[in-house]
Every structure is written in structure tokens, then in C-alpha cells.
């Protein structure tokens, strides 16, 4: 469903935009900032267990509304294809049969699997889609949250850990088939699917000639395209993971940039951090497997593709500060913003943002100091 | 165990597993035979969704695409990931692609019959998307050609091939819900259904769903699938229909209703309600059939629940069946694989060897049934007669909506 903002709302948006510009470029976390008075259209749809939302501008609002709706149809289709929770999805089919015989997949899914494997290799296994043996046993049957949730499985821990690794996955380019080399292997695309869906939506919008838009999936995958007509840029705010009402920084995105966000969910009842599993040394029951990684509370990966950014953000959470720094140095065009715990404080570090984004560090301030904009507040 | 024994046992295990894998491969390739060469006519969103499934099939090869709208054709070619012959005229495609054995017709409804007849007459097997047509005479004309043809003609009412519905029908026939008294089906979605059109000359071509001369409205495009289930499960045809509808949500120049309510009368006092709206997505789409001993509810072609009346007979097994809540009611999950799976386990099969087709999605299953019919010369589960009854049910409903009066279905409408 698309929503056209009323004239009054647009005037309000314009007014608060001017105020904001005066207020030294600040924003709420993941807030889509809009600053023009013209055809702003938003559209949203619930898919992949989260809300996908597009904010776009055009002179032809009827055309834009229809374009956004049809772009969001793609997300629904992808959910039916990539969800491990839908028993007849393409992914479920692979997981069920790929040990017994090579399963043929359609070219776009094959591309996605290859892309995921490549990122897995580039991150030294910190991102690994074969983590499904650890994650899916617990996730199946209930709704998926943001990324790779891992708690408990039915197998013994050692046995499960042995079922993770790209070496067990065979992708045949000639036949476009997927084969598992060991029984019990399972692919989980939850760490990359939303980013891929955001990219697909973005490409549909670009193809349709939409020249200015911002799209996000569950606030953990985003893509910004083009500057606004008054030359302002799309920004996302960075809140403190420990004190969500406090803003730490604002990231200004260049055009054609995707962002992935991953963070540890803190289970306050148990005082443990759970949410992501480290495929290199799966350590379950809520404790963290990587001492260095454990200091990173939230990771933003920024690059030209939301698919890559989504996968990289998961890996960045596990690679630790030095690991992320090295990765960004080695792979030009990949940037990161890390929120790192230092005692009781949270420090914002950034790497490799040149040509992708700019970061503005802010003095701590509360959310209420800044009015929400067109997209509303979208804090994690 | 000695080293020699260990080595021998390992070799034996390896050999057995290799033989097993080889046997599986051999069996699969034997089943497959030669690849069926097929073309897709109509490469809009739905056509591309079908194309995605075709690309997963080992035994099918897409060799040609056809669409009169070039951007759709380009998208489909990209999705296919390889260069194939493309056409803007289906007749040219049918004439030139001599090796093509089958075509998938996923074009606007108003063109289904003309294209399908051309394809059948060109000697191709045809899988045509539903509904068959918006006109009774056209449906009959299609039926005559399809019946006379030696080739397979299947219509994409994919619930007819869905294992869930086939499984449920066995129970219904067995008296699981007793005497049917009512049925209900919904299609609820918050969506304009509008396609973006950059050039006004493409408006009616791309937004054909919104105009009276090209679309039968919601009851045809979506309702025909759901009403087909009702006809199928009740094993009868509607007697009369009344309805009310309007363009209540999307006042954007469209001509067909976006908010409809229909009441059908079936023989033996069975009342059927159908609602469709583009204003609200609550409850999305489902079919529900109510009987004196229970009810069966089917959601989005994937989940089926059976609710029993307290006085319904006990079968025994349902105590152990998986159950799910729908509001306050606790339903027995209709799992088409449950009994087959149990039988296989008894024979020593592993869970992952469940029948392949039954773990695929409804589109895949429907298409693979079509290709199976071609290979085996079988009659399709949803042939032209079934498609005709579904289309005529929707056409009668459309008359009721447009005229605002009770429409009595004539027997001859359903006859070929």
C-alpha cells in the first residue's frame, strides 16, 4: 500500500527539514530524512518477518505508487523462494534434498548462493550460509527475527559444529545445481536475504526510472539512491545500543550505497548476548565465541550492494575491530561503522567510508530533541 | 576389529553408498527421459514466476519467450540467464519453433483462448493460466478444440494438483465433515493491482486487470481459483448467485470492482459466500467448507486445518496428529505427507527421501503435473472441463455484480 503525504504533511516536512539543516545534521537512528516539497510517496509491506519500506520522490505520483507496489511484490516472491520457514520454498527444497542429489536452482538464486560463498571466503568464514544446521533447527516453526538467531539445537553441540563449513557445499556452474557433501548440512540465508531483496527492489525502481529513493528491509538492510533535489543526502542515525534514546552519530550516504546492520541482542533477563552464531567456532547457550568480536555491539557494513552489506554486517560483528579494519583495507569499496563497548561507554569507529558515506559524531542527545521525519523513527 | 576388517568394512560401506547413489541417479535419469522443450507466452510478473519454476526442472528446457511488451521480455530473458529466441507475436513463435513441444500461456485473460487454440492447432501441448476466459462462448469454443486435440491442455487452477487439497478431498468424500452446509472463500489484499505505465498507450495493455473489456474482475482473476475448489469439493455446480460490489477503494479510473461480496446457492441448500477486497489484507486468502460434522479451512494453499464437531466420529489417529489453533478453535493439521511418510519410514526410507514433488510449491507441482501428462499421455487433473466450470461460475458472479440482480446459472452454460 502506498501513502501519499498530504500538503500539510509535506509543508511540515519541509519546515522541519530546514530546522534540521540548521541543527548541524542530526537524525534519529535509521530515520529516513526527507527534505523536499514534491511527490513523496511511501510504500510498505510485511515480508520476510519484517516491514519493507520505500520512500521515493517523483513528479508523477500515480506512476510512482504503482511502481513501489510492484517493486514490493518482488519481496513477497523472494520470501516464498528464500524462506527456510516455508516448507515448499526453493531453499527448503535444497535443504531437504541436496545431500541426496544435486538440486537444480534458478539462475538468480544460484548467483545469490555463489555471492554468499564468496563473502564467506572473504571474511574467513565469519559469514557462512551453511550455519543452517545450527540455526534452523531452532528457528523452524517460529517467526524469524532479524538475522541468524541461534539458541539450541537437537543434536549434540560437537556434532552440529561439524556440520558447518563451505567445504560441504558444492555449487556446479554448468548444471546450476547445489549439492551437499555431508548429511545434515543446511543453508540459512537469513543473514543475506533481506539485503538481496532490498537490492532487487532497488533495481526494479531504477529500471522504472525512479530517480530518488530510499528502501529498507526491517531496518537492518538499506539502500539509498541519488541525492534529493535540493542536493541534500539520505542519512541514517546511529543510536546507542545500550541507551537507545541517545544518538551517537549520523551517517550520510552517497548515492547507490547499501547498508547492512547487525547487532547482538542483549537478553537482559540472563545478562547474556545472543543473536548471532560464530560459524568459525559455534558457541551456543548465549555466550560469545569471539573475545574480540564481543566488544563490537553493533556493526554497519556499507558498500555498493545491500546484499553484500547485509552479509558483511554479520561478519563484521564477529571479526572484531582489527579484523574489520583489515577487511576494509583489503577490500576497497567496503566500509564499516562499529559501535564498540569501552567500559560503560560506547565508542563509534569507522573504516573505509571514502566514496560511500560520511559520518558525523554527535554529542549525546535524546531522541526527543529531534522531530521525526517522513519515514518516522526506525530505531532498532 | 583388525585393520584389515576395518579397511574391508570401509570399502564395503563406500561401495554400497556409491552403488546406492548411482542407482538413485540412474532411476532419476530413467524417469526423466528427454527434456521437454517449452516456450513461455506472456512474461509479466506471473509469467516470470512460472519461469522461475521451469528453470528448476531438470527435464524441461525453455527455448523461447514471447511478449508484446518489450520490457517484460527483457526481464524474463535476464531471469532466464541465457539467450533464447524471443518473439513479440505468438503466432510467429509457434510457426518458427518447430522443436518446441509445449507452451505456457500466462497472458491477460482475454487472450487465453485465442492463443491456446493457436498453440493446440500448431501441435503444441498447452498449459494455460486461469481463468480460461471471461466469456461463456469462448470457454465452450476452447473446450471443443481442447477435447478434439490429441495434445495436453491443462489450466493453471493449481489447487487441483496441490497435495493438500487432494488429501482433504479424500477426507471430505469419506464423510469427515458430514453433510456440507456452507462454504466461504476470501481474497483480501491491500493493493491497487496497478502496473506502472510510463506511456499512456500501454495503460490498457499493462493494466488489463482494471478494465471491463479485458478482465472479469476480482471474482474471475482470483475467485475462479477459489470457487473452483468449492465446486470440486462439493462435487456440484452453483444454481444461482447474487452479489454487490463497487469501486470503493481505488478511484483511479478503473472499471472493475475493487470490493465485492457474493452469495451463491448450490444444490441441497449449500450456501457459499465469496468476498474479495483490495482495501484490506486481513485474513488474506482462504477457503472454508462447513459441514454437519466439522469444517475444513485452507489458507494460502499451504495450510489446511480440520475442525471436528464434538459428535463427529473418532478415527483414532487424529489424537496423535499435529494440531494448530485458529482463534479459539483447535484444528487438526491436514498433512498430505503424513501417511505416506509413515509408510515410507516403515519400509526403511529416510525422511529426506519423501516424494520430491510433494515438497515443491504449488506452481512447480502444477507445472510438473503438466509435463508428466505429456510424457505419460495422462489426462490432466485440471483439464478444460474443470476450467470451464470454474470460469463459468465466475462469469455468472460477474453478471450478478454488474446487473445487481440474482443470476440463475443455466445448465447449458457448463456443457460443451
Outline the structure in words.
The complex is a heterodimer of chains A (380) and B (416). With 380 residues, chain A is α+β, with helices and mostly antiparallel strands. Chain A contains eight helices and 17 strands. Chain A has a nine-stranded antiparallel beta sheet with strand order 1-2-3-7-8-11-14-15-16. In chain A, strands 4-6-5 form a three-stranded antiparallel beta sheet. In chain A, α4 runs parallel beside α8. The longest helix of chain A is centred in the last third of the chain and has 25 residues, at 306-330. The radius of gyration of chain A is 20 Å and the shape is globular. Chain A starts with a strand and ends in a 14-residue tail after the last strand. Chain B has 416 residues and is of the alpha/beta class. Helices cover 38% and strands 21% of the residues of chain B. Chain B has twelve helices and 16 strands. In chain B, the strands form two sheets. In chain B, strands 14-15-13-12-11-7-10-9-8-16 form a ten-stranded mixed beta sheet, covered by helices on one side. Chain B has a six-stranded parallel beta sheet with strand order 3-2-1-4-5-6, sandwiched between helices. The longest helix of chain B is centred in the N-terminal third of the chain and has 30 residues, at 3-32. The radius of gyration of chain B is 24 Å and the shape is globular. The N and C termini of chain B lie far apart (75 Å). The model of chain B is unreliable at 1-20 and 351-357 (pLDDT under 50). At the A-B interface, α2 and α3 of A face α1, α2 and α3 of B.
